[in-house]
Amino acid sequence: MTKTPQEFTKYERARIIGARALQLSMDAPLLLKVPEKELDVFNYDALRLAEKELDSGVLPISINRPLPIKREEKLKEIKIEELEKEEKEGEETEAEKEQKEEQAEENAEIVQEEKAAEVADIKTEEEVEEEVEDAGEDSGSGDGEDMGGED
Questions:
Q1: For 6-25, what is each residue's pLDDT tens digit?
Q2: Is 3 within the bounds of a domain?
Q3: Does 110 reside within a domain?
Q4: Distance between CA 22 and CA 33 in Å, rounded?
Q5: C-alpha span between 86 and 83 (Å, rounded)
Q6: Region 80-85: what's the mean pLDDT?
Q7: How many independent structural domains does the chain possess?
Q8: Domain that includes residue 81, residue range
Q9: Is the distance from CB of 46 to CB of 18 less than 8 angstroms?
Q10: What is the C-alpha to C-alpha distance for residues 53 and 79, in angstroms, rounded to an integer?
């Protein structure tokens, strides 16, 4: 069984390399056999050596990434609560829709009644002429009642 190298995030890499570089700077033994020429190229830099060890996969380091615990009971409770809320909102919106429809119908009836009243108040030209003639006959009859005369 071969172990596949674990993929690390850039933050995990930085932490591992830093920790291993600290160990190397405090005279910890190298886990890789590095020739003297390469050490001279690295200038005995602990960070470079730690990075080379990490990249080669010889560091016995593993990262434990804990995941949140999901409990089915809790998930079911949350789903039930969400469904209840949606049902309540649905009922409220249906009731509001019914009220709005009723108001719209009432408003339409009122508008129709007002239009009918306006039509009833409008007189034809013939009716207006008859009223003017009747008013003229009443004022010329001489009943003694003046509509705006002198005292």
A1: 688 999 999 999 999 999 99
A2: no
A3: yes
A4: 19
A5: 5
A6: 80
A7: 2
A8: 72-135
A9: no
A10: 49
